[in-house]
Amino acid sequence: MVHPIPLTPRWMILYGVILLSGISIWFMRDDQGGFSSLDSLSLPTSLSSPFSSTRCPSSCQPDPFSQRGLLTYPSIEKYNETRWIPLPPFSSDHKIKLSQVDYTGSIDTEVEGRLAEQLTARLNREELIEDETDWEWLKGKLVVFLDDRNNVEQLCGEIRGKSKSWGGHVGGFCHVERIDLTIVWWFSYGLVDDESLDLWRKLEDRPITFESRIKDVFLPAMRSDEIDKTPDLMVISSLFWDEGFIRDYPQLYPPNPPLPANHRDRPGFLLGQIQWHQSRLSDLFTYLREIYDKPDLPLMFRTRHIRSNMNYGGGLKIIQIDQGARDVCEAMGVKIFRWGDLLEGVSDYYDKDQHFPLGPNTYLFGDMTFFYLRKALSPGCWTCKD
């Protein structure tokens, strides 16, 4: 049995409130272009993202390095043939027997069209120039890497550039004259937050905070070498030095009560330690955008890679810092330079710690750099949604 809707004064007031609330919600949705989502929620100024929700124009090449795939090169000696090959879309209908595998390593046309161009190898072979227009987009461009001396110097040698060092733990740059490309590297001691920490790496040159090093060391060095311009792309990594700083800090500057002597050996970091790193990393991104007065400055964060030295649980700790860093990048519109992820399994170290020798990593590093630089220079391709 259906009961009629009561029409007493009390019920009529209730119906009126519900009706007005529904109308208000409808107009709010209409004014804002739809109900709010995580993408539309406003962030604090320091965490604002320059990315838009607009889909990328068809002229923007899809990012192969952000997709699942495989790193391939025929041998250690032929490292200049290194490529990252995204996996084609999986279909359970596609059946293949091991006897059907093409062992020549050839890549079919459809897959080839999705790969990044092998610009590092072309520059290595000095295939410049029957048609200079192929390289016009690189001329006069500037890429800055924060904490990446090893890779920049290796790449510089492979693409026939000339390098200049401002000091081993200071910085330097590579200039490739024939295409007028400059790649700078800055060295920092991680995200240290206090210049008065005299016990931390006391033999290293000061200043030690990134704010003072950028302002007092890096920018003056660049001006003196006439590289006084806004970078077209900046790639940052701050993990390994931070792991040591976070680990050693409570031993060098004991809290009250002091921690046990074996604190450095704990398997991983505390939540608060990771949150400190996140806070400082967000400060660094904000600082770089502010000093160049460019809220949409093309920024990337280079992810962790496997290391040989696992002392003090360092492998797990690096992974934990890296996870927190990716969270900050997502909130602040900083893209991920997945060099470390893509190299997993390549473990030929020459210093028993964290540096790779010249090899497949160098060509991967170069091709990723050129791909993202081109993306940053292509109208509408950096801040759109892939």
List the helices and strands and how they pair.
Layout: H1 9-31, E1 69-72, E2 83-86, H2 109-112, H3 119-124, E3 142-146, H4 149-158, E4 162-167, E5 171-176, E6 181-186, H5 210-224, E7 233-236, H6 240-252, H7 271-291, E8 299-302, H8 314-332, E9 335-337, H9 339-342, H10 360-377
Parallel strand pairs: 3-6, 3-7, 7-8, 8-9
Antiparallel strand pairs: 1-2, 4-5, 5-6
Helix pairs in contact: 4-10, 7-8
Organism: Kwoniella europaea PYCC6329
Protein name: Alpha-1,6-mannosyltransferase
Keywords: Membrane, Transmembrane, Transmembrane helix
CATH architecture of the domain at 138-377: 3-Layer(aba) Sandwich
Average pLDDT over all residues:
85
Alpha-carbon distance between the termini?
Answer: 55 Å
Total of helices: 10
How many distinct beta strands?
9
State the share of residues found in helices, binned by percent: 25-40%
* Proportion of strand residues: 5-15%
Helix and strand element order: HEEHHEHEEEHEHHEHEHH
Characterization of the model:
This protein is an alpha/beta fold and 386 residues long. It has a domain at 138-377: 3-Layer(aba) Sandwich (Rossmann fold), CATH 3.40.50.1110. It contains ten helices and nine strands. The strands form two sheets. It has a seven-stranded mixed sheet with strand order 4-5-6-3-7-8-9, with helices on both faces. A hairpin with a 3-residue loop joins strand 4 (162-167) and strand 5. The protein is globular.
Give a quick set of tags describing it.
single chain; 386 residues; alpha/beta; seven-stranded mixed sheet; two-stranded antiparallel sheet; 10 helices; 34% helix; Alpha-1,6-mannosyltransferase; transmembrane helix
